[in-house]
Amino acid sequence: MRAALLLYRAYCAGSWGVQRRYPAAMCIWVLGVALEPVLYLAVWHTAAGGGQLGGFSGGDFAAYYLLVMLVNHVSYTWFFMVMDRRVREGGFSALLLRPVHPLHGDIAENLTFKAITAVAVVPMAVLLCLTMEVRFRLGVLDLTLAAPSVLTGAVLRMSLEWTLSLAALWTTRVESFGRVYGFVSHFLGGFAAPLTALPAALHATASWTPFPWMVAFPVELAMGRHPAAEAVRGLLVQAGWLVASLVLLRTVWRRALRRHTAVGG
């Protein structure tokens, strides 16, 4: 355990040194991650008007997308883009020479970025609360269940997206695959709209995929939209997807190593 903490401390310190040199780029990333939910909020808040849509009032939509912005910030990754460039330019070969799994460095970089940019994301969330009619029904039980759900969803998203990004070893442009993945996950994961606002068939389809368990489910838990028994079942499903993603990661990683042909570096 101590060795792991020292490893992540070293990785995070190195990532901090690099990222703080590019404040403009970080601001652009923050705007991209944070403003997208705000745009969806504007659309659905207007569509709801003074009534309800898919079980959501205008205030519910404001609360939903505020939480989506925060939860998405916790779980967001850019692994497809990084892996695409890393494999094509030969950086992946250099990483394989290190005595630790490359995933650890990516996680540390991701966590460092989120810690730095939280300074901008949190004030944006506060500003949204002050300017919109946000309707929260936060209870102690809801927050107690939502906290581990947010963490599980973040780990699930990181492991799944890092695994899928390894497709860069089989194709020349995995970033294009990442765009398709992003499109599907936005519709089935509760980004483009709350799942209850989707057509029934699409809602049912989404529940059989891992996408809603990354962001939508933790957000709905925090809003108290799941009874206790249903929330516990959801947490078990979320844990099942996490285990499946970790097994997939291990399997694909072994095959990726056999597939890899060293170039550049």
TrEMBL record:
Signal peptide: none annotated. Pfam families: ABC2_membrane_6. The keyword Ribosomal protein does not apply. It comes from the Bacteria. Keywords: Membrane, Transmembrane, Transmembrane helix. The chain crosses the membrane at residues 21-43, 63-83, 183-211, 231-249. InterPro entries: ABC-2_transporter-like. This is ABC-2 family transporter protein. It comes from Kitasatospora cystarginea.
